[in-house]
Design brief:
single chain, 7 strands, Rossmann fold, 3-stranded parallel sheet, 2 domains, 178 residues, two-stranded parallel ribbon, 8 helices, alpha/beta, globular, 39% helix
């Protein structure tokens, strides 16, 4: 939903990334993105991101970390803001523990470009929760935003749902119906 929200809040160009061509098409066709690039192969990600954002990045909302974060810092404009809201690269890493998301970044770029980087959680601003619920509900009712999700029936399918989510089979939230 990040692309839709960015668009509603006035973003001029919205770029996303995903793991499959089918998801990229859905992101550009119905979820507010101007461009959706594939995360793999990682070695060409910086070039593909630079091509998608020829003027650079002003705001980067990162749910993954890893190679994407490194590439975004390289393409960031002076004064860019990086918002870290997730760390899927570490959580889903076969080599990791799921409790860390290590990434090597060029700290010199942060300094030279005066990039601000901040981790944020939905729990950080409880005073704005009601405002968010109201705004989000208005967008949903007006049809200005959609909530991409898949429903999987039955608690006995919860393990399969988790596995499919980790594999990136679904776009959006995976809901197990009880």
């Amino acid at each position: 939903m990040t692309g839709q929200i960015a668009r509603l809040l006035g973003a001029g160009r919205v770029i996303g990334s995903t793991g499959s061509a089918a998801k990229a098409t859905r992101m550009t066709d119905s979820l507010g993105y101007d461009v959706a690039i594939l995360r793999e192969p990682a070695d060409s990600l910086p070039g593909r991101l630079a091509e998608a954002a020829p003027g650079g990045i002003d705001v980067f909302v990162d749910m993954v970390g890893g190679d994407q974060l490194r590439a975004a810092i390289g393409v960031a404009r002076p004064g860019a803001r990086v918002v870290l809201v997730g760390a899927l690269s570490g959580q889903l890493s076969a080599q990791g523990t799921g409790t860390s998301a290590l990434v090597e970044i060029d700290a010199f770029q942060l300094v030279v470009k005066r990039i601000t980087m901040r981790g944020i959680s939905g729990l950080d601003h409880p005073d704005t929760h009601r405002e968010w619920i109201t705004r989000f509900g208005e967008w949903l009712r007006a049809g200005e935003i959609t909530f991409p999700h898949v429903r999987i029936a039955g608690m006995d399918n919860a393990a399969r749902a988790l596995h499919e989510m980790i594999e990136g089979k679904h776009l959006g939230a995976v809901v197990v119906e009880l």
